[in-house]
Amino acid sequence: MIAGRRRSARVAGMTPPLDPALPLEDLKAFLRFPSISTQLEHAPDLDSCAEWLREKLTAIGLTATIHTTPGSPVVVAHSPRDPAKRTVLIYGHYDVQPAEPLGSWTTPPFEPRVEEGRVYARGAADNKGQILAHILGVAETLREHGELPVNVIFLIEGEEEIGSPNLTEFLREHRDELACDLVAISDTAMAPGNKPALTYALRGVAAMELIVRGPARDLHSGLFGGAVANPAAIVGRLIASLHDDDGRVRIPGFYDAVRLLAPWEREAAADLEAATGGDDSIRELAGVTELVGEKGFTTTERIGARPTAEVNGIGGGYQGAGTKTVLPREAFAKLTFRLVADQDPAVILAAAEEYLRRQTPPGVLLEIVTGHSGASYQSDPNSPDGLAARKALAGAFGTEPLLLRDGGSIPILATLKEILGVDSYLLGLANPDSRIHSPDENMLVENFLGGIRMSRLLLHELAGTSSTR
Ligand code: BES
Ligand code: MN
Questions:
Q1: How many structural domains compose the chain?
Q2: Are 112 and 124 in contact (CB under 8 A)?
Q3: Same domain for 197 and 72?
Q4: Model pLDDT for residues 341-355, shown as the tens digit of each residue
Q5: Ligand 1 atom nearest to 437, measured from its CA
Q6: Residues 6+ apart with CB under 8 A from 321
Q7: Does any domain span residue 343?
Q8: Can you name the residues that pair with 456 across neighbouring β-strands?
């Protein structure tokens, strides 16, 4: 019945407007998989989510395959490759962050709910709503024209939130199959005030955990306190040693490779602040009364263009109710550094380790375990493809996109550049108040539907871009 109506509409030379209920039903189905890559017990959910994607991509007319890896499967889908057309690789991820703390969600994280123009669920904006907008944009284009203006490859992985440990190897092995002219990604956010933006730079990230080990066992803090080094206090001291009073990171050499903003970037940052309400909107998004950070830089610069050291977690000692007079045998902290061009994550981790070892007093052992890391990424918003991406955003959302340097990281971008030799353009669809990684993650329905329009326009804009960049 529906197929018949669609066919006759095409014969008549027009496509009926998309019924918004259909994309939302698809999104809700996608969001029901608890595809949490950090938690091993969810491996079956990652598998079934990948299978759902494969079926969806096949149903819209692409050739889709699931590739197993030592971790979560990678889903790849192709349109028929026409050598006369340019090729766009659309990257996304179907894995999500853990939903904890579960008690802070208004409704359960994997029972999607649409309310007041938002879809609520873990993964709604990061990244299921965003990648699905592209899938549906391609589907709509195929439905309307029977073919695409560019060759499309979807590369949708299931390990982004854990640093893509198996994707580099996968890219090396499938380099030929994934050959393309550029990468398009919607895995970032719009500017404050939900203003469309092309994100032209993301920070890199380097993770480490430090564990301070002291006495052979937890001790009575009265019998031994005053005589034995306290690992929890030393972790506190190490954390405090990371910053000076001006908010600068004290690790020697930390800022050596940091690239300063070009004049046009300072202008773009000023435009952004003028258009978005600057500090006020960020205070409101964060739910704080005061913004702090490295002296001598604006908030926009500190988030987008300056490196930081953050504590993501801290623990050790007694965590239960009431008091337990104990001197803990060990304590830990989890750190990440956010990096900018041209900082090298390995160099930063080595400098940090050396510094932390020097700050560690005698009487304890410092163990350092490095985690995932990835370099920062930057592409040119004024290149032909950058301009095409901006046109697609402007057309879909009715206003010229701002240019944004964002503070989050997508480590695989630097690897895509290295292995496939192409640039990535970041057309973020998440609303700034989407609460990604937090309870009540959500995506504005208008961003999701606008994203489908954007994806359609993007395919056409990129077809016209000269491939000599
Ligand atoms: N989609 C985010 C990154 C992002 C969000 C960039 C909004 C800019 C604006 C991505 O899924 C993410 O969270 N990445 C991690 C990377 C890490 C786990 C290796 C991050 O930035 O913490
Ligand atoms: Mn993401």
A1: 2
A2: yes
A3: yes
A4: 999 999 999 999 999
A5: 13
A6: none
A7: yes
A8: none
